[in-house]
Write a structure and sequence with these properties.
It catalyses: pyruvate + ATP + H2O = phosphoenolpyruvate + AMP + phosphate + 2 H(+). Keywords: ATP-binding, Kinase, Magnesium, Metal-binding, Nucleotide-binding, Pyruvate, Signal, Transferase. By secondary structure, the protein is an alpha+beta fold. It has six domains: 66 residues; 86 residues; 117 residues, no CATH class; 122 residues, Glucose Oxidase, domain 1; 206 residues, 2-Layer Sandwich (Dna Ligase, domain 1); 130 residues, ATP-grasp fold, B domain (D-amino Acid Aminotransferase, Chain A, domain 1), CATH 3.30.470. The radius of gyration is 31 Å and the shape is globular.
């Protein structure tokens, strides 16, 4: 008996420990990385023989001849455990992996991407986890790795759909996975120059040149540096510099056209492409023109991508893609040598590089179709108006952003994951951008932007940085405060209301700040963008290069302004004019502080309400505007709005009248006493910071207490009965959304979008009941309170109601504003959509469109790799997508126009302001449109009418014509 028990315990220990293994903490992984760096074997255990029959033998006991096998390192148990607990793969040995496991399709190809990130880290950090392990002889056999790589690509390239949906990723993988003797020379060149600049500060200028504007003449710069500093350099430093010269010579070495001609001779597929490649060597030698070479190679790149599926042999496809990467390298070199002289040539270069972006996978075919004609048509005439030229510039900027954001969309999830324990990983995406068409395209567009800014009189004045034409304003406003430049994960930053932030991309739950600038705009109608517009917070977009240039100004006190036309000012405090200083002389708030109306509130109604019985007039009385307006929509569009229940203000107030534990007063009395005490502290001379800290501490206590409040039994019974009536099923059988809906939302001067909690797709009865308390408590979170404080005179009178609606598992969802926001007119529509549920509102990189009565303009494609769906069992399920197809189809666009017209007609006619624009949330399920919310679209009137902002807004003569051949 004892033996059996011992046996069971042993089985549990061996197998159960992994089943219940907890995810390792960031600090534990950091420690493990450091341990590997200092271990002579890194993450490896010892050398083994891995035989084809599955057996594993010691290094001195090879596989039998009739079985065969390969030899390489095995892994330490800690490395194997990390795979199971955190899905992290360090020090991969390709020959040891099955193709499908390495591809890792269920995790959006994470393992493949981690291999690439690992290679990057090894190149810039002296081997990274293999700092000492790289000298562990026999750990990796290069010939086995290369044979595995060739077999891997011949397997994945057999999948037509994988090629179509992951073209960019495949081409990048070819640069990193050994398969034909090649290595990623471009990455090695940048890594070696980066390491040298860190060790030799005087080398920094050359490193910047190699990273930002790489040319063959850089070799001479390095050689001259060696000669000039010969006496100062150590032998080790000289060797590293000479190694860099060798790497650069390899990078800039001419293509071996004889080898290419030999490779394509046997290709069997699209004859036109084969012939085009064959002729390229002759073309290259006959045309000593960088422009001609760039245009021709861009065309071939696009044609290879467009016809690769015509080549049925996987070996042919592999050869073709390798040739594609070689041609891209030639293009990257020659595009730096193409110096444009006039406006027409500059636009032609942008056109050629846009074609190359398509050919290298940075743009999708449907995206290219949206922009191609705009560029081509602009150079088909002798003169072009300033307005038309600005349209060309906006299109060109978009192409740069789309190209760079595709790189980010592919790798961002894994890079951010690695950044938690290895900050150096953050440079991986920038490295990929610099080794792509996006770098030269961005430089050319910047040159065009400088010219357009000059003739349009739109000049940014952002500190003293270069290439300011990439900066453009999104929301008008002005601010003064400390500048904080965040070049990394924004979620780790605790933002403050009096500071100005520059982000790579803003956090979706951004607390109020004085001003923001972002590299990743997100989308025009996310909650953060709408709140910024609503509060008059200046908001602008800038390039990654601009962000890097502004790092030196981090921590400085600055003045920041964005005009109505989008020009941007950012200057140090000492450089402010008297007029700008006067804007901040009054410490007292002058931002149209408003009072939440409570005179008509109905706190006597403490029963659950069917949404069908309310309309817009009940907003602020029985419930918030979400429920009231959706009730109105239900009456106007009965087939496109779900059923719903409302927990009115009165139910919340009845629970707040209960005794609060350990306080000798009710929840409501505690809340009011808190604000009364805060006012007293302020009158007694306490600073705003001290008062705010007191309020936040008190509200945290209230928030926690509400989460534990006992729900009234009669209310729970009433809720269950209404579930049955409205949703035709018992509570616990219908997955629902719980949406917070306060009386401080959608006021004339404040939107409150996204401040309080929405709970997705909750099914279990206990979770619904607990969710009600969570939604009530969310009105007292720090973020919600801080946004309200900027506007409300009586924040203690905020009452949450709750809207309960059944989940609709939409295919895609988003937001519509019934006007053009940054472009277009009041008659147009701005629409942002993402796949799955909750689209666009949380700042995802959404498919954004300007829809006019007759046209439909793509402002930005979706660049969000992941999305969520709403399974019937409750909760959410994560999926991944590719970008080869647009989200909204023509039928969707037709339905959007139709619903917008009805909203303007039916809702607008009841509004006091007949020109009121609306913010509408909706989605499509099997092409049927479902409405989820409507609210007034609120803009900040002070920011729109500010005399100062008007004074810095340039007057643009849009009809002025410019000769297309004008020098630039």
């Amino acid at each position: 008996m004892a033996k059996n028990i011992l046996k069971v315990l042993l089985i549990f220990f061996v197998f159960g420990s992994n089943s219940f293994a907890q995810e390792q903490t960031t600090s534990a992984i950091k420690q493990l990385v450091e341990t590997y760096k200092n271990d002579i074997r890194g993450p490896y255990y010892r050398i083994k023989w891995f035989c084809k029959d599955g057996s594993i033998r010691d290094a001195k006991d090879p596989c039998p001849d009739d079985i065969d096998g390969i030899q390489h390192a095995s892994f330490k148990q800690s490395a194997l455990d990390l795979r199971k607990t955190n899905h992290l793969y360090f020090g991969e040995i390709l020959a040891a992996i099955k193709t499908n496991e390495f591809l890792d399709a269920n995790h959006n190809y994470s393992r493949l991407k981690q291999y690439q990130i690992g290679n990057y880290l090894k190149s810039i950090d002296n081997g990274w986890i293999l700092r000492k392990g790289q000298y562990y002889r026999g750990a990796i056999q290069s010939e086995d790795e290369e044979a595995w790589g060739k077999a891997f690509f011949e397997t994945v390239l057999n999948d037509d759909n994988f090629i179509k949906t992951n073209y960019y990723l495949i081409r990048q993988a070819l640069k990193d996975i050994p398969h034909n003797g090649d290595t990623n020379i471009g990455q090695l060149m940048r890594s070696e120059s980066k390491i040298l600049a860190e060790e030799i500060p005087s080398f920094m200028d050359i490193r910047i040149k190699i990273h930002g504007n790489p040319q063959k003449t850089d070799i001479k710069l390095v050689e001259h540096f060696i000669q000039k500093n010969d006496s100062k350099l150590s032998l080790k430093e000289k060797k590293k510099l000479k190694d860099l010269v060798v790497t650069m010579e390899q990078f800039y070495a001419p293509l071996d056209f004889k080898k290419i001609d030999k490779e394509i001779a046997s290709l069997n597929g699209n004859a036109m492409v084969v012939e085009e490649i064959k002729n390229f060597s002759t073309y290259f030698n006959d045309h000593n023109s960088s422009r001609k070479i760039v245009e021709k190679s861009a065309s071939i790149l696009a044609n290879i991508r467009g016809t690769i599926l015509d080549f049925k042999s996987v070996k042919d496809r592999l050869q073709l893609l390798d040739i594609s990467n070689q041609l891209e390298n030639i293009l990257l070199i020659e595009t730096q040598n193409w110096k444009t002289e006039n406006l027409a040539e500059t636009i032609h270069k942008i056109e050629a590089l846009t074609c190359a972006s398509l050919g290298t996978g940075l743009l999708e075919f449907w995206e290219y179709d949206q922009v191609e004609n705009n560029l081509k048509n602009s150079t088909n005439k002798e003169n072009i108006t300033i307005e038309e030229l600005n349209n060309v510039l906006n299109t060109s900027r978009s192409i740069v952003e789309w190209s760079a954001s595709l790189i980010k969309a592919n790798y961002n999830e894994d890079v951010l994951n690695y950044t938690h324990f290895e900050p150096l990983a953050y440079g991986f995406i920038d490295d990929r951008v610099r080794n792509s068409i996006a770098l030269s395209l961005g430089e050319t567009v910047s040159k065009l932007g400088t010219f357009v800014a000059k003739i349009s009189n739109i000049n940014n004045k952002v500190m003293s940085i270069d290439n300011q034409s990439a900066i453009r304003g999104l929301n008008p406003g002005y601010a003064f405060g400390e500048l904080v430049v965040v070049d990394g994960n924004p979620d780790a930053i605790e933002v403050q209301t009096n500071k100005i932030y520059i982000f790579q991309n803003p956090p979706s739950d951004l607390k109020p700040v004085a001003g923001i600038m972002t590299v990743s705009e997100g989308n025009l109608v996310s909650h953060v963008q709408l709140l910024a517009r609503n509060l008059g917070i200046p908001n602008a977009a800038l390039s990654n290069e601009n962000l890097s240039a502004l790092k030196k100004d981090n921590g400085k006190k600055v003045f920041y302004a964005v005009s109505h036309k989008g020009n941007v000012i950012l200057k140090e405090e000492d450089d402010m004019s008297n007029e700008e200083k006067k804007l901040f002389e009054k410490v007292e708030r002058s931002k149209n502080m408003i009072e939440v109306p409570v005179a008509d509130i109905r706190l006597d109604v403490s029963k659950v309400i069917n949404m069908r019985t309310v309309n817009a007039t009940d907003s602020g009385k029985l419930c918030g505007p979400k429920a009231a307006n959706l009730g109105e929509l239900k009456q106007l569009f009965p087939d496109q709005v779900v059923e719903g229940l409302i927990i009115p203000f009165g139910v919340f107030k009845a629970h707040m009248n209960l005794q609060m534990p350990n306080e000798n007063k009710t929840y409501w009395e505690y809340l009011n006493a808190t604000f009364k005490e805060a006012d007293a502290k302020k009158k007694n001379g306490s600073s705003d910071e001290m008062v705010e800290q007191y309020l936040l501490t008190s509200l945290v206590k209230l928030h926690k207490s509400i989460l534990n409040i006992d729900l009234d039994k009669s209310f729970v019974k009433d809720l269950k009965l209404n579930f049955q009536t409205a949703f035709k099923n018992d509570m616990g059988n219908v997955p629902v959304f719980l949406r917070s809906d306060t009386n401080m939302e959608d006021l004339k001067e404040f939107t409150g979008a996204g401040l309080n909690l929405t709970l997705f797709n909750i099914k279990e009865e206990d979770k619904i009941l607990q969710g009600i308390k969570r939604v009530w408590a969310s009105a007292y979170t720090e973020r919600s309170f801080k946004w309200r404080q900027k506007y409300l005179l009586n924040p203690e009178n905020v009452y949450p109601s709750i809207l309960i609606i059944p989940s609709v598992d939409v295919d895609y969802s988003g937001v519509m504003i019934t006007k053009g926001i940054n472009s277009g007119t009041a008659d147009d529509l701005t629409v942002a959509f993402s796949r799955g549920a909750g689209g666009a509102v949380d700042g995802q990189s959404a498919e954004t469109r300007l829809i006019t009565k007759k046209e439909n303009y793509l402002l930005a494609p979706a660049r969000q790799a992941d999305y969520i769906r709403l399974p019937n069992y409750g909760g959410t399920k994560k999926y991944y997508t590719s970008f080869d197809k647009e989200i909204l189809n023509d039928d969707n666009i037709y339905e959007i126009r139709k619903i917008a017209s009805k909203v303007r007609q039916k809702i607008g006619e009841k509004s006091e302001d007949k020109n009121q624009a609306y913010d509408v949330e909706f989605g499509f399920k099997d092409n049927k449109l479902w409405l989820f919310q409507i609210r007034p679209f609120v803009e900040n009137k002070q920011a729109k009418s500010s005399e100062y902002l008007n004074s810095i807004t340039p007057k643009i003569a849009n009809s002025t014509k410019i000769n297309i051949n004008q020098k630039i």
